Amino acid sequence: MATLSSWLLDVKPSRAGELQINEELGPRGRRRALIGTAVVTAILAAGLAWVLRRFQVKGQFAPELWRPFRQWSIWKFLLLGLGQTMKAAGVAFVFALGLGIVLAMWRGSSPKRKRIPATIFTEVFRACALVLLIKFAFFQLPKTPGFRGWTLSKYAFVSLVLGLTLYYSTVFAEVIRSGIRSLPKGQSEAALAIGLTEPRAMRLIILPQALRRALPNLFTQAASLLKDTSLGVFVTYSELLSRAKIVGEYGSNFLQSFVVAGFMYIFVVAILTSTANRLQKRQAR
Amino acid sequence: MQIVLDNLPRLLRGLGVTLQLTIGGFLIGLVIGTIIAVFRVSPIKPLRVLGAGYVAAMVNSPLIFLVFVAYYGLPKLGALLTNFQCALIAVGLYIGGYVAEAVRSGFNAVSNGQAEAARAIGLTFGQTLTHVILPQALRSSVGPLAVLLNANYRNVAVAGIIGVSEVVKAGSDLSDETAKQYPFFVFSFLAFMVLGFTTAAFAGWLDNRVAVKR
User: Fold this and answer.
1) Share in percent of chain B as helix, strand, coil (round to 5)
2) pTM for this entry
3) What does the pLDDT read at residue A274?
4) How far apart are CA B211 and CA A17, in angstroms?
């Protein structure tokens, strides 16, 4: 009981640098917090009970709606979808990061013939809705010479990856550029002073440090890229979400299949976001 | 050009839907997110756990997934909603998670001395929060919140998948009907540009106006 109440009343912030609104509570505060805890727990339990009751009343706990998830074939279907999600995200990430690094370097360099195109490219594609890019690519690619005669699924994959790459390259470029700007000026001055040319100074001195500083944000944006592969639904790319929808349509059990798919999404995306948080915390020290 | 002018009413209606979804969803998210952020610093542990769980669920799942849950899932529980309402709920809940993160970073921008001083003069948790912490925290989160609002214009385009005719969907329907792609693509793109710059300019002005000058 003593450990339970001290666990409940622990008000220390979990991270350094966080605002601490509460301090060690006194006797009256402890009493109030415990009463509050009891009341809140009761309210939350009632809320949960209400939701479960809705499920019950509407027959959503019926065994036949959950039965598909006892079959390996259904799991395999969904997990292969998750694989497709990861494949699109992985390919798009590699291309977007490469392009993003080039864009960030060009935007930070002095010759106009590099700076201006990079600036225009970044500003244009950053302002574009991802759905718009993906749909446009999907409808335009089959009409473009050199891209004709593919299978539908190839068009779907390529247009999804193309849209993600164009959009996220600008996002990564901005993240890296803010990493570059966060470096002290002395770094580039010293690099130039020892006789490195500007591009070499960028490549050897600035970029490695900037990337390290940008790492937490890069992970955050990679998580967002992974989530956005679900826009493949718009172009019939057979990834996790579209497959969950197919399972739901087939067994008329949308809620059940979305619960399963939701846990899959949260699991894989949380790996990236929690890495981002951990890196952030480490850099804050 | 002519083809865009001919279909301008439909495109503008689409733009109106985009605006409604974006701003409506953002306002819902603002309310939910602020409450969740307060939960996360409250002295009551179950509220802190609830807040953290909510943020984790929203930040880690795709918006289009939430739209699908609202559209295909909620009717199974007996909720009869229009497509627009489904999209609005999904957008509001989703943005709520991000607003909670933005407000929490606003909390952390408030110096510990403020909370200590508030406690020292005997304010309760609720008073400390409403009179001292929140006013400062919200003002310093104007910048991140504006970034969220700006991303929201483009994010709500996913509502097109459940037949909500926002600007991208209106444009792509028209391009199916007229077999012309570029004009409508360019229209949507320019619309996003205008909305984005307007929001950014307004946010910049607001940020400067309410800034905590220390």
Assistant:
1) 85, 0, 15
2) 0.90
3) 93
4) 21
Which residue's entry shows tokens 């998580």?
A223
Please tell me the distance from the alpha carbon of residue B155 to that of residue A59, in angstroms, as a whole number.
34
Report yes or no: B65 at the A interface, CB cutoff 8 Å.
yes
DSSP state of A147: S
From chain A, pick out residues whose CB is under 8 angstroms from the CB of B196.
127
In contact, B58 and B94? CB cutoff 8 Å: yes
CA distance A272 to chain B (A): 9
Whole-number percent of chain A with pLDDT over 90: 58
Structure tokens at B132: 């001292």
Cβ separation A129–B64 shorter than 8 A: no
Q: Is A144 exposed, middle or buried (0-12, 13-18, 19+ CB in 10 A)?
A: exposed
- In chain A, the percentage of residues whose pLDDT exceeds 70 is 94
**How do residues A270-279 score in pLDDT, each as one tens digit?**
999 999 989 9
CB B26, CB B95: distance < 8 Å:
yes
CA dist B16 and B24 (Å) reads: 12
Calculate the alpha carbon distances from B30 to A105, B68, B141 in Å: 36, 22, 11
Is residue A164 a contact partner of residue A229, using CB atoms and an 8 Å limit? yes
Say which amino acid occupies A265: Y
For A62-71, the pLDDT digits (tens) are 888 888 888 8
